[in-house]
Design the sequence.
């Protein structure tokens, strides 16, 4: 892996429009049962504009930014050796259906440990007004030659 | 009903659940998330990279493990921070599937900002599969 990736900020990816049915589909896939994930009336009664996405839904928006990182021509990351090490989501406000979200990736850390490399990538996700919604942080482990 | 921060004690269990995963669950999650890595639905591909067989998406395990916390808190929006470390795979047998169990305990209380840190113990086949699995829940 190219150590010069550290500190690199990538161009923002195309905006992601959060659909109500996508939130419902994702909610079913992670075994969510809360009505606020599915029913706009229940969501509004709880003070939300529309159905609320589960806490890990941001990974769907983040995914395009990680694809940028893995495809970076001088990155030197062999994606067949990549293992997901850590994941974190830090919210300013929840994601709701109707949000138009834009994600921007920055590489915050690169470490080498016993032949393996670890890259930490932070995707900052903002809404159509530019307000912060969530930061998704992934640490990917790139296994060295066995 | 929203849990009351002042009533919580560090170490007490607030939620427990168990989830039965099948290969269908993995295909469903692949479609919903857009993660179509074939190690999550093809044994031959999983075995070609040294795994014993198909394993669940780590993000599926992370996603379901927080659901008992969401139900306890009463609103998914109350989970303001959630992190995990992926430590062991969850192999999902084609015939019998896999059972993942979750125990959620109060890890810490931040009274000033009305946030409870809920620590998750997530187990498959008798061993934990997530490390440092922590959800911060806003109870204001």
Sequence:
């Amino acid at each position: 892996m190219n150590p010069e990736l550290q500190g690199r900020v990538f161009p923002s990816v195309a905006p992601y429009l959060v659909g109500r049915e996508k939130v419902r589909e994702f909610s079913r896939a992670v075994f969510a049962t809360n009505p606020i994930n599915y029913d706009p009336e229940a969501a509004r009664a709880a003070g939300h504009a529309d159905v609320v996405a589960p806490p890990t839904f941001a990974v769907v928006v983040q995914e395009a930014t990680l694809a940028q990182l893995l495809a970076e021509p001088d990155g030197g990351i062999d994606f067949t050796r990549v293992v997901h090490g850590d994941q974190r989501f830090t919210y300013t406000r929840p994601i709701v259906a109707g949000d138009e979200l834009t994600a921007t990736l920055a590489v915050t850390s690169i470490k080498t440990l016993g032949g393996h490399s670890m890259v930490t990538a932070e995707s900052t996700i903002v809404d159509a007004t530019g307000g912060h919604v969530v930061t998704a942080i992934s640490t990917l482990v790139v296994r060295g030659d066995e | 009903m929203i849990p009351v921060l002042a009533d919580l004690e560090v170490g007490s269990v607030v939620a427990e659940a168990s989830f039965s995963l099948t290969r269908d669950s993995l295909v469903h999650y692949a479609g919903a998330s857009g993660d179509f890595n074939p190690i999550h639905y093809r044994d031959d591909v999983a075995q070609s990279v040294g795994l014993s067989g198909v394993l669940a998406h780590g993000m599926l395990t992370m996603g379901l493990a927080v659901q008992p916390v969401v139900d306890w808190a009463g609103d998914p929006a109350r989970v303001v921070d959630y992190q995990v470390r992926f430590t062991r795979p969850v192999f999902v047998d084609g015939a019998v599937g896999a059972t993942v169990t979750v125990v959620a305990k109060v890890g810490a209380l931040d009274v000033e900002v009305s946030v409870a840190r809920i620590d998750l113990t997530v187990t498959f086949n008798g061993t934990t599969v997530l490390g440092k699995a922590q959800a911060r829940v806003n109870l204001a």
